[in-house]
Every structure is written in structure tokens, then in C-alpha cells.
Amino acid sequence: MANKHRGEVTARLDGKDYTLCLTLGALAEMEQAFGAEDMVALAGRFERGRLSAWDAIRVIGAGLRGAGHDVTDEQVAAMRTDEGASGFVTIVVDLLEVTFGGEEAASAAPVQPAVAAKKSPSGEVGSAAPFPGTTR
């Protein structure tokens, strides 16, 4: 069973339940695949709300590999969901929400950004902006 607090989701692909997780290695794989400079740029790419079929293949593939499944993107491209194309979108959205945060993830377990406190010129202590998709 998937543990959302660890960034895991469950997806039914080809009639079988899989756990997906975007580990640090999976995120690095996605940075390279999408030409993203860093994780903030990667999160920003998905915050725009646009998702191609190739994006879904890459995200689902990285999530499957991150959870330990030995699967290629070509194999992911041939997989099916019970809900058709909308099922793939749901998997990607759920996976990105538990990884980067979002409304549902934030309400389930608030994400606190790991940033150093900064002092303003007046001496007040604050923090940098939260990671994309998180709330304060």
C-alpha cells in the first residue's frame, strides 16, 4: 500500500496495482528528460497545468522506476488504465502532488520548506519563498 507521507501513490496499470514514487534519482532523471535546470524549474513546468502524453510517460516511468519497478518508457507507453487517458492524467497529478505539494497534499501533511532564515536589512528574520506548490 502506498504511503503518501513518503511520496508514494498507487496506480492500476494493465490490471495490476503498482506503487510509484519520485525519489531523488527519479527527479534527477526527469530533470534530464525535460531539460530542467533544477527541481524548482521542474516543478514550475508542471505548475503551468499542461501535460503531453510524452510527459505522462516520462513521469509515470520515473515514478515506477523510483519505486523499484524495472520498466522502460517504451513499456509504460504500451500500458493501459481502467479510465483510459484520464487515468494517466490522474496518476501524474497524484504523483506530482505528493512529491511537490499541492492542495490535497498540503491539507494531508503540510510541507515545510527546508530553507535558511534570512535577515532583512532592518534585522527582521523571515524565510525564502516556499518550494513551488507548497503553502505556508
Describe this structure in words.
With 136 residues, this protein is α+β, with helices and mostly antiparallel strands. It has one domain. Helix content is 45%, strand content 13%. The protein contains 6 helices and 4 strands. It has a two-stranded antiparallel sheet. A two-stranded antiparallel sheet has the order 3-4. A hairpin with a 5-residue loop joins strand 3 and strand 4. Helix 1 runs antiparallel to helix 3. The chain is globular. The two termini are 29 Å apart.
Topology:
Elements: E1 8-13, E2 16-21, H1 24-34, H2 39-47, H3 53-66, H4 73-77, H5 85-100, H6 103-108, E3 117-119, E4 125-127
Antiparallel strand pairs: 1-2, 3-4
Helix pairs in contact: 1-3, 3-5
List keywords for this structure.
two-stranded antiparallel sheet, alpha+beta, two-stranded antiparallel ribbon, disordered C terminus, 136 residues, globular
Summarize the entry for a quick read:
The chain is α+β, with helices and mostly antiparallel strands and 136 residues long. It contains six helices and four strands. It has a two-stranded antiparallel sheet.
